[in-house]
Amino acid sequence: NTDNIDLDFEVNVYLIFNNRSKKIPGIKAVLIKSFGFGQVDSEAFVIHPDHLFATLNDKTIPNYKAIPDLLDWYVS
Questions:
Q1: What is the pLDDT of residue 74?
Q2: Which phi and psi angles does 8 have, rounded to 5°?
Q3: With b meaning 16 or more CB within 10 Å and e meaning fewer, what string describes 21-59?
Q4: In three state form, how does the secondary structure of 10-68 look?
Q5: CA-to-CA distance for 48 and 29, rounded, in angstroms?
Q6: Residue 57: pLDDT above 80?
Q7: Contact 25, 45 (CB under 8 A)
C-alpha cells in the first residue's frame, strides 16, 4: 500500500511514490519492482518510446509495426 508512506522518505529524490501522479521530464527508462505477500515478486523494465524506436533500423520498423496486426489475428 502506498497510502501511508512515511514523510521522511519524500526527501529522497530517487524514490517516486505511485500514490499520486507526477510528471518527471527526462526519464528515459525505469525499472519497477514489486514485492508482495508470500515472497511473490515482479519486475518490469519500461523504456521511453523515443529511445526504443531510435534503436530500430529502417528494415526492422515495418516488422515492428506489423505486430499489432499479428496479435489481432491470434486473438480472433
A1: 61
A2: -60, -25
A3: eeeeeeeeeeeeeeeeeeeeeeeeeeeeeeeeeeeeeee
A4: HHCCCCCCCCCCCCCCCCCEEEEEEECHHHCEEEEEEECHHHHHHCCCCCCHHHHHCHH
A5: 6
A6: yes
A7: no
Residue 2: pLDDT over 60: no
pLDDT of 49 reads 83
- Give the model's pLDDT for residue 56: 85
- What are the grid coordinates assigned to 29, written together? 527508462
Cβ pair 5, 19 in contact under 8 A: yes
Q: What percent of the chain has pLDDT over 90?
A: 3
Res 19: pLDDT:
66
**How far is C-alpha 21 from the chain's CA centre?**
14
